[in-house]
Design a protein that fits this description.
The complex is a heterodimer of chains A (202) and B (512).
Chain A lengths: L4 H54 L1 H20 L8 H15 L3 E11 L10 E14 L3 H13 L3 E11 L4 H4 L5 E14 L5
Antiparallel strand pairs in A: 1-2, 2-4, 3-4
Helix pairs in contact in A: 3-4
Chain B lengths: L1 E6 L3 E8 L2 E9 L2 H11 L6 E6 L4 E9 L3 H15 L6 E10 L3 E10 L6 H10 L2 E7 H11 L6 E8 L2 E8 L2 E8 L6 H21 L10 E7 L4 H7 L6 E7 H8 L11 H10 L13 H59 L9 H16 L5 H11 L5 E11 L1 H6 L15 E10 L7 H15 L6 E6 L25 E9 L2
Parallel strand pairs in B: 1-4, 4-8, 9-12, 12-13
Antiparallel strand pairs in B: 1-2, 2-3, 5-7, 6-7, 9-10, 10-11, 14-15, 15-17, 16-17
Helix pairs in contact in B: 1-3, 4-8, 5-6
The chains are: A alpha+beta (202), B alpha+beta (512).
Chain lengths: 202, 512
Amino acid sequence: MNFTAKELKALALPLLACVVLLAAGTALIAWTQQQQRAAAGELSAAREQLAQARERLLRIAEEEKEVKEKLEVYLRLRALGILGDERRLEWADSMTRIRTQRELPDLRYRVERQRLISSVASKPSTVDFYASAMKVELALLHEGDLLNFLADLRESGNAYYSVKQCSLSRTGLASAVAGLAPRLRAECEIDLITIIDRAAKA
Amino acid sequence: MKHILYFTAADHYLYSWAGGRLELQARFPGDDTGVMGFREYLAGRRGALFYAMADIAGEDFHEEQIPYLRGGDREQVVQRRLAQRYRDTRLSAALSLGTVSGERRNERLLLTSFTNTQQLAPWLDALTEAGARLAGVYSVPLLAPALAARLGVKGGRAFVVSANSAGLRQCFVEEGRLRFARLERTVDMVPDAFAAFVRTETGRLAQYLATLRVLPRDGSPVQAIVIAPPGQRGAFERALVSDARLSFITLDAAEAARKVGVKSAPASAGAEQLYLHLAVKSPPREQFARREDRRSYYLWQMQRGLVAAGGLGFAACALVAGASWLDFSGMLGETRQLRAETQVAALQYQRITSAFPVTQTTTDNLRATVIEFGNIARRTAAPREALVYVSQVLNDFPQIELDSLQWRLERPEERATAKPPAGAAPAAAGEVAQVLELSGRVGAMRRSDYRAITAEVQRFAGALRTDPAYRVVRTQLPFDITSEGTLSGDIGTAAETGEAPRFTIALARNVQ
């Protein structure tokens, strides 16, 4: 059947209606399926959240015990000044005080800039561990001075002192010649570790 | 609403049809004044849908055979045969009666047309001019097979006899196909006389068909379905007595209308109401109008088809979308419920944790801080312990003089990158170890007494192994007695010069 121009014109509107209806139907399917996918995602997330919430509830007794135990350590860290910003002035004070108290002939130190320690992946983003490397050179009368120095440093607080290495060598001066002159020389590398907890209340 | 133009020899009736209800809209005389009146009626009804139903005498039926063909070839042959048979083919049709198998396969056709098409032509022209859509031109016989089927004829041969406004209509149907029909004029008669007339005419038709050998002379009686006018069934049943040739079944007009599906019809309408209803409700494929007369109807059908296809497509899409939506709604509801349960669990957790000691931070941070700090602390050590241990061992070796001590922590990652010194024992993988390197000399022994010096250093190294926690990872003796090393000596020199030979021992102990 061949159509005249008039007949084709008469068919144009129904054809347009057909196309529009089909397009609307397709769009309707696409939209509802998009909504369905989004809802499926939300449902999956909600299921996971509920599972986590229930698991936390189940573990709450353990958690209470854990909180009590860990809180003790946490408060100790705070009291020691390990938790919080670096206190470089306090560190300098401690070094001066130890040198005076232990009557160390010579004590030199150098603290490098602070760096972030790479930590466990699962840790909350509001807790970071930092370390500042310190190099110490000591002139010693005897070996015990080094051990005492390290013990005093640890007791002084304001950071956690992680000794990386220490070398002890003779200065070469004979005791009879030098009298109270230092006979030993020590060099140590120590990390001064501090913790920043941004969620902590002042 | 659909319109049906019902042609009889005398007058033409215009009915409207909607939902099985027939209403008489107008009645036109069969002459030119009728055509004019019809034209007036059509004014303002452009696009209206019309069916034409002819119930007139002078309808020709002629059986022919054509080669078994399909598609355009068949159409061409059929048109040629119609043109050969009828002078005016404007209103003609070819009804297929099936195929016959002989030397070659042929198709049986029943060619049919009106002997005087001019009585219908002006009315069809009026429809075309008014822009009305002609669905088709049918005759009462064309609808007889459909009526027979509705009235319960399953197959075989049957007469369908009805009292129409045009007269007594008799149609002969064989295996669901029309074979012959005739219209006999009637006059007003009492029911008994009319029933006797029907009996006589039906017998005559049967006799005629037997003469033509359309009906076998001997055989079982042929079913004759007679639709009696309202209130005349009793008279018909009395008159229509079955015999060896005919087996009569009489139906009341109202009962027939119910079987066909006519809900209401004008009281003046005869049995034609059944055919009129079927023309609209189940029109046969074959009809008399030419393709060009039905062109606007085809166009209308295509328009409707397109919109219907769009509508169906949209409905199907909406169905799919509805299913998705139902699923979506279900998921939304489930999500809401899960969130509510999560909130309840969170509140319960919050209520319980509020009774916990004041932590000054979040529980997660508290846990992370302490655990991580513990990890760091476990991976550190102080040199005191190792130095004290060496000091204790040295008490038993007064000849050993240490020149230097080097203490360091070795982490697995550092060990992996650092090349181990020659002679070093491998450290346990993955563990932090403190390593203490001792460098010294053996005093109070002659330098040339290398056996004694070596033995003393080896004894010292052995003593350092006393505590199983410590292991000697490297020993560098004052004299290299290994096959890989270089051994040198200065024998015979009068006086011993230079320093005592040095040794190095590296001790290691795991931190964790």
